[in-house]
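Translate sequence into structure tokens.
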Amino acid sequence: MTNLQNSILSNALKLVLLLSLLALVMSSPEVVKGLGQSQRRGAVEGDGHKFLIHPRTLRIVDGDGREVYFHGANKFMGPAPTMDRFSKEEIKRTGDLGMNVIRLAIDWHGLEPVRGQYNMTYVQLIHTILREMDSLGMYALIDAHQDCLSPKFCGDGVPDWAANPRANAAPFPEPIDRPYVINNATGYPNREDCSKHYWGFYCLSEAGSSAIQNFYDNHEGALDSFSAWWQFLAYQFKNYTNILGYELLNEPFAGDVYSRPSLFLPSVADNENLMPMYHKVSEAIRRVDPDTLIFFEPVTWSDLGSGFKTVPGGDRFQNKSVLSYHFYVPPNTLINDYLPMREKDAANLRSGSMLTEFDVIDHDEANMKQIRGTIEACYKRHVSWIGWTYTGFLDNDNVVSLLSQTYAQKVAGSVIEQEFDVSNTKDYLLRYKTCSSCTQPTVIFLNEQIHYPDGYTVDISPANSTKWRRTRANYIEIVPTSSLEETITIKITKTTAKP
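Result follows.
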């Protein structure tokens, strides 16, 4: 099945769920026990402390008060990752493109295959990746990744012992298909059977949806164990200053929609299943790490807005919470409508927000246009973005050129306007109001080889307000010469080669 077909089927699932909502309205690893030792790492250069959400702009700021913007990619690590699948060279190549964040999609199943015993081989691999990213000035968003919970349901992410359906649930995958034969060697359905349908449809199986509900309901202590697992990870990684945040659960499903069809309503699922789970997990994390940002997602079909009324841990953590969301076409159609809607969600919660998945895998003409439009909209709304997935673009020059855009990674003030003409002139514009208390410079990435092979010019107005300097390949800094708050305009233009 092609990536385009996967995308269509994935979003067809969302359409099915939305139609169902309308219908409702109408009628062998190394394992050790215990927390182990956390490891302290040095700060990414120029940062003061961990990030916060600015109370007025709701944007992410660093310890110096600078707004921080992220362009990046997802990396699915799976249950048994190795550095062969995620090499230091690949990390560097990603960073060289100006991508300053990688969303590390890690696997609870792989990290805790035996209850209460953590796979330290996996943990040490994450430490290795974090250290390498730290040395390159890159950030990590740690994501507890799952899709349809478990291999028991043709999915992934959650250990077998934590993925248990309701006792009277229909055999898997009814009503999606007739019952599948279970492979005695693995305890899972055969891959051939799972491949009959796109994996997302299996969330709608009675067994799968009821197992997800049991997880939310802490059946046999599953949610207790998930919270303890997250606390273990937070303890391990809390001293890395290149951790952007912890994303509590990828693309959570609503729960047992057969026992309770009203869960198709985002307002019900988000508030009655997801947020209680998020509260419990965040409380466990905050016992060992009170500072790192926590990212949280609504159900995947909340296209008209999430149903959340508060953030994980309650309102006192608004300045340390980020609403995470994904954008795929279909069913989403208009990115310029979708982003303001998510912005409104965050404003209601007084949290930050970030686009943490959109399709950069498919490289046909239509999706290339969609990628371009999505990034342009993110510029206009001051939205940070992370594409899915890391392995989908590194060897495609057209996609690399499209994703490796000129942008301000850190702004000593508040952005008013930012845009980049990636397709034609390569002109870049940044307008921002300076911050009188900021002591660190504005940092701008620009890919000199791809977009400015013959050089570039930097124009600043007012002319005497700041000065600029090239600090290393692909980076310039804007240094203020005055402590006054004022509006600065930066224009970067490509130098045209002489004939």
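Note: The longest strand covers residues 71-78.
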